[in-house]
Automatic annotation (TrEMBL):
Cytoplasm recorded as keyword: no
Location of region: Disordered: 1-92, 108-130, 219-244
Name the UniProt record assigns to this protein: Exocyst complex component EXO84
GO cellular component, one term: exocyst
Similarity-based family: Belongs to the EXO84 family.
Biological-process GO terms, alphabetical: exocytosis; Golgi to plasma membrane transport; protein transport
Annotated compartments: Cytoplasmic vesicle, Secretory vesicle
Subunit structure, as described in the record: Component of the exocyst complex.
Biased segments, Polar residues type: 219-228
UniProt KW Transport keyword: yes
Pfam families listed in its UniProt record: Exo84_C, PH_EXO84, VPS51_Exo84_N
Lineage: Eukaryota, Fungi, Dikarya, Ascomycota, Pezizomycotina
Length: 684
């Protein structure tokens, strides 16, 4: 084998020596015949095709070669004939590639179907223009330049297809925008409700923390002054039996205390008129008023602490020789001198502010009361040194002031809460401001619970239903809105034991019901020619309780149709033709109106339709009398016109109405007034 390979050479051989010589190019005028021994294809006549001839198998020429070609084939050939026994080509299939054309059609729209060939190319073999969403989203998008580049060479069909694709893209964007707006509104309403709920919880938590602080301060002060006494004196002594937790007994006790105070302190009722809840907290006993400059004693006083005021009474000698005076009474009496509200004054302990004499401060047992309307200051000192009444008075003043401020804050919070409630409901329903009685009860009904389908719901649930109803009305979803209004009306009618909540819900529902009825009435007047839509709109209005308004709107719309159609009839000299057109318009519209009214409205309302038809016939008689005023009554022209009108009036018998006797009545006499005087412009 090696010897044979050494003899064989690819560059030498007998065949290489006998290779043909390439000649210079030459001009030919006919196909060069192939006479190398291979069969030639048959010559076809002009106009014939290969499909017309029976197909024959063309013999394939044997490939040229020899030992060299056999050796090359044998060297570069490999046989794969033995496959593994466990080989399964379906166990690991090749993943399918995504269809890019379907993806682009889903994003932009189907490819244009008009114009171009079957392959989606234009007439000139180019691809038709497509909508590029990324280019349209570019903030630096130039419309004129984009249109010139994309549609510069487009045909009319391609431009129409491109316009359709843009319209589809616009419609899809508008639908997405509307859906986003609806979702954003729903989320905003939900977040507003959660914020309002959180605000109420924070307000409650703040009140609880304030009460906890007040109770802790009071307990600490009580523990520090456990040995102190807080009696009111012999006039205001209370036994354990009188100290009860009942509100009625406590109110009676406070009233008795105030009556005793009025009898004991002369002129006290002028400063402290009797009011609910006012009572005496402490009778601080005898005090001495000091001069502000010299701290010398001026007169003897007595201090009374009430739950909201501080009363200062001066001790004066009683005139025994006065007429009518009781000789057995005490030698001194108490006269009201000054009185301040506790929140208007400040009580300061004077201990440590004065000079000391004989090792003791002169103002150790003194207090200063400053403030009031004129911003004055007064100094009072206990008669007995180191009297515990001073400590008890200061402690009680602090406790009473703190309680007053807490009560005032609670009232302020309640007022603010009521204002917030009023503003909240009034901002949603401005018409609520005209309901004064309902506004006064808003703060009470905010946390009120009502029973809905066996569950307890507050008025926030009612507000959520009103929000849903507003959304239905705004989106003109009439059927869901009518169903929700019926549900809320039934809910309000079921609250017979809760008149406040019933009035509140009824007011809100009635306002939205009127708004929805206006929308349906407008739709009824626009589509009164369609019996199906008319019946649907009338059914909605009847369910809302506005059947009278539906009847008036429908008949008014039909009257406008009669006026519009009759004005389109123009008199051109032929009186017979004009009367025929007018009568045909009037009685045809009246007949169609009665037919539609019978199928859309309840039977008890049919009398209103008959009355309307009678009025329209009277209006036709006015027109007929005006047109026949120049014709002789009973003449040929007059009789023919009236007969034509009665002939058209006979079509009302199809709907159960017979107005033929009314047509033409008083036509001759209506042309003139009483006395036969003609009526016209310029005639008196």
């Amino acid at each position: 084998m090696s010897e044979e390979r050494s003899k064989i050479s690819l560059r030498s051989g007998g065949k290489r020596k006998n290779r043909p010589t390439i000649s210079s190019p030459r001009q030919i005028s006919a196909p060069i015949p192939q006479d190398n021994g291979m069969p030639q294809p048959p010559q076809l006549p002009p106009g014939a095709t290969m499909a017309d001839e029976p197909r024959t198998m063309r013999p394939r020429p044997p490939p040229p070669g020899g030992k060299t070609s056999d050796l090359v084939k044998k060297r570069y050939s490999t046989r794969f004939g033995h496959m593994p026994t466990d080989f399964d080509p379906s166990s690991n299939p090749m993943p399918a590639l995504p269809d890019f054309e379907k993806y682009m059609q889903a994003q932009v729209g189907p490819p244009p179907s008009r114009g171009g060939d079957a392959g989606g190319l234009g007439p000139a073999g180019r691809e038709p223009p497509r909508v590029d969403i990324r280019t349209l989203r570019d903030p630096n998008f130039a419309p004129e330049q984009y249109v010139a580049e994309v549609l510069g060479e487009a045909t009319e069909d391609e431009i129409r297809d491109y316009e359709d694709a843009l319209k589809q893209l616009k419609a899809r964007a508008a639908a997405d925008l509307q859906q986003n707006v609806y979702q954003n509104r729903t989320q905003f309403i939900k977040i507003s409700k959660e914020a309002e709920k959180l605000k109420g919880e924070m307000r409650t938590l703040r009140n609880l923390m304030s009460e906890l602080k007040t109770n802790t301060t009071a307990l600490r002060a009580s523990s520090n002054s456990a040995d102190s006494s807080g009696g009111l004196g012999p006039e205001f002594s209370m036994s354990k039996r009188d100290r009860r937790s009942s509100i009625t007994d406590r109110t009676a006790l406070w009233s008795a205390q105030m009556q005793t105070l009025y009898k004991t302190v002369e002129g006290s009722q002028k400063f402290l008129p009797n009011s609910q809840g006012r009572h005496v907290v402490q009778n601080a006993g005898p005090w001495v008023e000091l001069d502000n400059a010299t701290y010398k004693s001026r007169r003897s006083m007595q201090i009374f602490l009430l739950n909201d005021h501080l009363l200062i009474a001066s001790r004066k000698k009683r005139k025994v020789d006065a007429p009518g005076a009781d000789a057995r009474g005490p030698m001194t009496k108490l006269v009201a001198d000054r009185c301040w509200h506790l929140l208007d004054v400040e009580v300061v302990d004077m201990a440590g502010t004065g000079d000391s004499s004989n090792g003791r401060n002169k103002l150790a047992d003194a207090i200063m009361v400053r403030g009031g309307g004129q911003n004055e200051s007064f100094i009072y000192r206990t008669e007995k040194p180191e009297d515990p009444e001073k400590t008890t008075l200061m402690l009680n003043i602090r406790k009473t002031v703190e309680e007053l401020r807490r009560n005032l804050q609670s009232e302020r919070d309640a007022t603010n809460k009521a204002k917030e409630t009023i503003n909240y409901f009034a901002s949603r329903d401005p018409g609520l401001l005209q309901k004064t009685e309902l506004l006064e009860t808003l703060s009470d009904i905010k946390d009120m619970l009502i029973e809905v389908d066996g569950k307890q719901q507050n008025l926030r649930w009612v507000e959520s239903q009103m929000d849903e109803l507003d959304i239905n009305i705004a989106l003109q979803q009439i059927e869901p809105a009518v169903a929700r209004i019926e549900m809320l009306k039934n809910l309000a009618s079921g609250l017979k034991n809760n008149m406040i909540a019933q009035d509140f819900i009824s007011f809100k529902v009635d306002e939205r019901c009127a708004r929805l009825a206006t929308l349906v009435v407008r739709e009824l007047m626009n589509s009164h020619n369609d019996q199906k839509k008319t019946k649907r709109n009338v059914t909605w209005l009847v369910r809302l309780g506005f059947e009278d308004r539906a009847r008036e709107a429908y008949l008014e719309a039909r009257s406008e149709v009669i006026q519009k159609r009759s004005r389109q009839c123009i008199f051109q000299g032929d009186l017979h033709l004009y009367i025929w057109e007018i009568s045909f318009v009037y009685f045809t519209v009246i007949r169609n109106t009665v037919i539609c009214f019978q199928s859309c409205f309840p039977p008890p309302m049919m009398s209103a339709c008959v009355k309307w038809a009678k009025e329209e016939v009277d209006a036709f008689n006015v027109i007929l009398a005006r047109q026949l005023s120049s014709a002789e009554e009973g003449g040929e022209v007059w009789t023919e016109c009236v007969n034509r009108a009665k002939e058209h009036a006979s079509m009302l018998s199809d709907v159960g109405l017979d107005f033929r006797n009314l047509v033409g009545r008083n036509v001759g006499t209506s042309a003139t007034v009483s006395g036969g005087a003609p009526v016209g412009l310029g005639l008196s």
